[in-house]
Amino acid sequence: IGAGYHDEHSSDGIASATGIRRLVDEGKAVQSLMPDAAHHPFEMALHQGRSLDTPALYRLLLARIFRGADSLRGLYQIDNGIENRLAEAAGTCADYRELVDAIKSRHFTRTRIQRILCYLLNEVRRDHMDACLDSGPLYLHLLGSSEKGRAFLSTIRKRLSLPLIGNFSRIYPTLKRFYGAESDRYRLAESMVELELRSTRNYTLLMGAWTGANRNLDFFVDPLRF
User: Fold this and answer.
1) Do 165 and 139 meet the contact criterion of CB atoms below 8 Å apart?
2) Whether 144 contacts 226, CB under 8 Å
3) Which of 88, 162, 185, 214 could form a disulfide with 220 if both were Cys (CB 3.0 to 4.6 A apart)?
4) DSSP labels for 77-108?
C-alpha cells in the first residue's frame, strides 16, 4: 500500500523510512506520514540534534576507504573485488547516496552495500564475525523492559544460560566469572563488547549535535522503562 520499500516519494499519505529521512534532510514536514505517538519523540530528537548527519557518515567512510583497497581485504563481506570498486568510487563520488549507487550492481544490492559500509566503518573483521556466528551470542544486554518484564527477570536471573550485562563497571568481571578469565569464550565475549562499544561511539560521531555525555551510550544510558 502506498510507497514502496526505499521509495523516496510518499504515496497516499504513506512513505518509506528512506522517504521520511529524505524529507527531513530537505527540511520538510513529516508529521502527516507518521503515527502521532512516534512523531513527538521523533521531533524532540531532531530538535536535540540526535539525527544522523549523512555528510559526516560519508566523510568517515571516505577516510576509511582512502587507506587503500588492500586495507579493506579481510573485513566482513568485502570480497569478489568489491574493495576495488569502493576505492574507485570513493575517489569521484560527491555524497553517500552517489557512493552506494556507484557500487551497486546485479550482485551487490543497495541493502547489501549499506550493510558492507557499516561493517567497514566499524572495522568488522571476517574472522571475528565468523567466530561470533559460530558461537552465537555470549551475553544478554537489556535495553528496556516493562514492569512485567522486570518482574520476570528478577525471578529468572539466576537460571539464565547467558550472563546479563548492563552496568559498565561490572561487565568484564561478570563475563570472567561466567566463562573464566583465561577461556577462549571470555576473550570472544570481550571482543563482542568492544565491537558494541566501537559501533556506539561511531554512531555518536554521526549525530548533528553532541551534549558531551559519555559516548558509550549503550552502558551509560539507563534501560528504557515502559
Assistant:
1) yes
2) yes
3) 214
4) T--TTHHHHHHHHHTT--SHHHHHHHH--SSS
Cβ-contact 142, 223 below 8 angstroms: yes
Report which DSSP code applies to 10: -
Burial class (CB in 10 A: 0-12, 13-18, 19+), 103: buried
Sign of the torsion angle spanned by Cα atoms 151, 157, 162, 164: positive
Walk along the chain (226 residues) in steps of 10 and give the mean pLDDT of each run. Answer: 71 82 85 87 84 90 95 93 93 94 87 94 97 96 90 89 90 95 96 94 88 82 82
Q: If you search the block for the grid coordinates 566503518, which residue do you land on?
A: 121
Q: How far is CA 96 from CA 65, 67, 127, 196, 219, in A?
A: 13, 18, 27, 23, 30
Q: Which three cell numbers stand for residue 6?
A: 526505499
